[in-house]
Structure formats: structure tokens, C-alpha cells
Amino acid sequence: MEAGWLMARGVIYVMSTVVPGLVKIGKTQTKAFESRMYQLERNGYNNIAGLKREFAIEVENYDEKESLLDDIFSRSRVYNSELFAIDVDLVIQLLSSFEGVQVFPPIQRESKEETFAKATAERKEHVNAQLIPDGIYCMARKLKKDGGKELKAEMVVEEGRFIIKKGQRISLAEGAGLASSVRAARCANVDVHGIVISDVVFDSPSTAGSFIIGASCNGWVTWKTKEGTFIDSLRA
User: Fold this and answer.
1) Overall pTM > 0.85
2) CA dist., res. 78 & res. 15, Å (int)
3) What is the mean pLDDT of each run of 10 residues along the chain (236 residues)?
4) Which domain-ending residue is among 67, 98, 126?
5) How far apart, in whole angstroms, are the C-alpha atoms of residue 195 and residue 172?
6) Of 76, 100, 126, at which residue does a domain stop?
7) Can you give the residue range of the structural domain that contains 98?
8) Closest alpha carbon to 21 in 163, 143, 155
9) Which of 49, 89, 114, 216 is a Cys-bridge partner for 44, taking CB atoms 3.0 to 4.6 Å apart?
10) Is 2 a domain residue?
11) Residue 122 falls inside a structural domain
């Protein structure tokens, strides 16, 4: 991927993009990691914007390990690029299993073991999400941060995609635990009155729910079927 580095030790990284389900996997020299991240996060890659570093690890024989990733994810690769149509948590799970030194997130924030556990849990969430049949699901929540007003919303499920359609109202308040990717989606797709101005696609019911209420949430006990039962029942 990143051509021209001949040293045996270097960094392999994965970045999310503004396009849900599309990630960039690359490699770079350890000393060039920060400048490479800055360049990609600022300028994008291959006409794709919104790149955000998710995980990076310094390993021995990084050329060989990166080639291994290419082989593993070859069917998901966007032709002639370093982009892959794949679940970012699956990539993180694999990278965090390598022997090496975690470069990002900083080790004081999240250890390699914690990253592996988190990626495993999120991967399980995405696998379970495929059990939800296509259709329309709803939520109704009274939020203290919105003065106790009831917030109603719908989520459309289509072939494993969780879509919040334009025209709905969301809470403008945002909690400290809201994921940065959800914050970015709210910033790009919601007007000053809290109205969604374009359809937004997510990869799990929990991120779709977080987009609506402005805080982290468990989508399995947030969204309901038309019969009024939580979608958690679909996992059982």
C-alpha cells in the first residue's frame, strides 16, 4: 500500500471514512506516522474525505503483515486503491492480535487488550444486527436535556443498513460519550433546528439511536417493532 518504505519495522493502521463501511488500511514508517495521519485526515484519500484514525500498531516485518491483510481482505478491496468495503472493527480485531506496540489509540487511553475486547464486542453487535428484518422501527423517548419533551423517530432497515430518513427531528443536545463518527454525521446532516436534511446510513441500531438522541445508547432496547416490542427480542 504505502510504497517506498523498506525498513523491516513500521506501523500498520486502519482509518474510517465519511462513507459508512469503507475503510483505509495502510502502512508507514513509525517516525512518519503522525505526519501521514495529518495529511490523510486533512486532505482525504482517493476522493474520499472524512478519514479518521481508528487503530495503529508498530510491528516487525510490516510489509509482510500488510500483504497478509491485503490477501485476507482482497475480495473487499476497492480496485486499485487502499480502500476496503469492510467492517472497521473486524480490521481492528485482527490488527490488535498482532505482536507489536500499539501506537494509536495512545496506550494510556486504551490498551491493546481493551481495543481487542471492544472490537470483538462491536463486531458481535454488527453480526447480530444482520438478524433484524427489513422494515420500519420506531422509538419514543422523553429527554431531560430537551426539557422533558417527547422525541419520536423512525429507523428504516434495508439489507443490513440502518437508515434515518430526512425530515425527522433529533435532539440537538450532545452527551460527552457520543462517538466522534456520530457527531460528524449530525454536523453534516442536521440543520440548526434539529431537522435531518438528508438520509443517513449506519451499520448498527445503536449508532442510529445515538444519532437521534445525541448520546450513547443501546439500540436493542431503544428501537421497537411495529408491534411494540424491543428489537432485542430478535436476537433471542
Assistant:
1) no
2) 15
3) 59 92 93 93 91 93 90 91 91 89 77 72 75 92 73 92 94 82 87 92 90 90 93 82
4) 126
5) 9
6) 126
7) 9-126
8) 163
9) 49
10) no
11) yes
